[in-house]
Amino acid sequence: MRSEVEQIYIETRASVASYLRYLGLSEAQAQESLQEVYLCLYQTLLRREPIEHIKAWIFRVAHNDGVKRRKRDKTFAAEPDWSRFVHPSDSPERILLDRERMERLKQSLATLSPQQRQCLYLRAEGLRYREIADTLDIEVSTVNEYLRRALARLAEAVHA
Amino acid sequence: MPEPNHIGQDELLALVDGELTPEHVLTVEAHLRDCASCRAEFAAFLQASVVYAQFHEELLEPNLTPQIWPALRLPKSRSSAVYGWMGALAAVIAIAALMFVHQRHPQPSRFQEILDRSEVIPPRPHERIQVTAAGLTWIRSASHNDRRVAALFIKAHYNWDDPLSARSFASWRKLLRHKRDRLSSLSTGDGQAPLYVIRTETDDSSLRFATLTLRSNDLAALKGAFRFEGDQDVELNDVGPESPAAPAAPSQNPTPLRESAVTPADELRVMAALNEIGADVNDPLTVQTDATKRHVIVTGVGIQPSRQNEIRRKLLALPRTLVTFLSHAPLAHPPASGNFLSTDANSDARRFLEDRAGGPRQLETIAEKSLDASTYSLAYSHALDVLADKFPAAVESTLNSEDRATLLLLRHRHAAAVEHNSAQLADSLRPLLPARPQSQATVPQSYTSWQAEAGKLYEDARRLDDTVSHLLGGLLSKEQTERALASLPDAIENVQTQARAEAAAQ
3-state class of B125 per DSSP? Predict the structure, then answer.
């Protein structure tokens, strides 16, 4: 069981840590939170409680833990300033995604609500609507609505 | 005839995300076939999703992922463990074991002969035994879990002091009035001694069946699988002495089974075994050594149960290999129906490609074949890159000549598959590509090492696949399409040349 959890940790930690940092945690806080999340996974598996989709389960626990930590320490920014993130080397082959389109996407993202952005994030991580709803503790229909509005706006921006 | 009732944005998005029921998908798709405006909206959602996914993958994640990873701290004590017996893992292993037991040697005399011979092998006092029960694994006598397992063996009159031995197996068996015996042999396929599997089933004991795996050259018991009443499964594995310094009893054929740490060679053998059933490239599997270097861990995600059994069966004979399957739901990829998506922005591009292909149907066929070839080329170059990652020159030099030959074989197979599939890709795309003079095969300027080249090849195959899928996915404007087509012949040839060099490299 330990090695199984260690294996899952190795496979999923990058996406979970990124999400925790996306929530606004510092790198150190995200690491602490990670330990907590996988310890919880280990204990749950030991109790032989069923987990349907491990990755979704981990994101839900990580989200709750991350939000708790953020509340405890008010110095956290709400979200890292991703609008300043730089693109790693632009290759000439990247014909689809020109810089300009990426800029438009970023500007458009900035106009969305944090929850809409979280839905987009979790969706890009491969979570189903049901799982996103569980993670953020909202209704499935709300997830659909957030995503619909968000993507309609993004589509407008990237299509322009 | 335009449909009066258009599809709502929420449904279009749900279609993109694979969140609709199959019946609903059919109605929405039927509408999309007839309605250009809904189709355009659908394509816009899809395009926005692709751009966002790229933003997620290329900007967010690299900027947010920590650079260092502390080890996971999990508590040592297992006091909170709850014993719901018959762990799924143990059960599947038992089933896989069951399926593997062919009746190749049905004669009871042969069974008896092997049992008699192995019974007189002197016990090996200092071996450590790994116990797996109820989905938990521990090293014997290091855990209170032992007591529960011991109780099962004692109740069945099976010697728990020496459970992994033919002697104990035989004395338990002698007590049984009604029993069914089976003997089968397993070839390990890696040049090591074959294994005998002896198995006795009964209704006379609380131990319903016991299976012992013996190495044929010295009849050492390596593995035991036991099923007790109430479907309680226990698996025992010989994990060798604690320290590699302690020399084992002299054996003419020393094998890695006696070492305390698994080596890259063990990993390689697992990969070679997976390659034999095509599981290294076509199944989402990872092969890793655990942090304590005790096992090669093979993890599969979202693999069909029947395929899981095949994989387990293939790996059964390999020492110290743990196989785990996780039931992740598949990622929500956009549905792959109809390759080319038409929007107002790219209808020019589509017409342009259809003209070159000779019609819409021909374009669809070209797209299907090309996307397949490109995906395979990418998958095999990835497999090659994984090998390069696991076996850098320093590790490669520690392999013995046989293992090195295995590594070379795997590399060559992967490289040849990349070459073959990129040739297919060039072939299937030919009607679309601009005419160009047949260029002579270029020699790669500077070949450093196969490992470094594998990384480059994977990078290039990935870029090529990117271009091909954007081109044929209808995501490019006409101008971009023309540019992509002009760049493709060189890009394909580049991948092909590199693959050819890798397939010839020593």
Answer: coil
Q: Strand (E) positions, chain A? A: none
B4 touches chain A (CB under 8 A): no
For residue A47, the domain's CATH number is 1.10.1740
- DSSP states along A136-155: HT--HHHHHHHHHHHHHHHH
Distance CA B267, CA B321 (A): 9
Look at residues B167, B144, B168 and name the one whose alpha carbon lies nearest to residue B154.
Answer: B168
Same domain, A66 and A93: no
- Those of residues 62-101 in A touching chain B at CB distance below 8 A are 80, 82, 85-88, 91, 93, 95-97, 101
Mean pLDDT, rounded, for A132-152: 93
- Dump pLDDT digits (tens) for B388-420: 888 888 888 888 888 888 899 889 888 988 998
- In tens, the pLDDT along B367-388 reads 888 888 887 888 888 888 888 8
Q: Residues 255 to 294 of B: which have CB under 8 A from any A CB?
A: 286, 288, 290-292
* CB nearest to B72's CB, from A9, A22, A96: A9
ipTM of the complex: 0.87
Per the structure, the complete domain to which residue A43 belongs is given by 2-73
A83 part of a folded domain: no
Task: State the smallest CA–CA distance between residue B404 and chain A in angstroms.
Answer: 27
Total of domains in chain A: 2
Highest mean pLDDT among A120-134, B226-240, B279-293: A120-134
- State the pTM of this model: 0.39
The string of pLDDT tens digits covering residues B113-162 is 777 777 766 665 435 667 776 656 666 543 445 667 777 888 888 887 77
Q: Do A126 and B291 touch (CB under 8 A)?
A: no
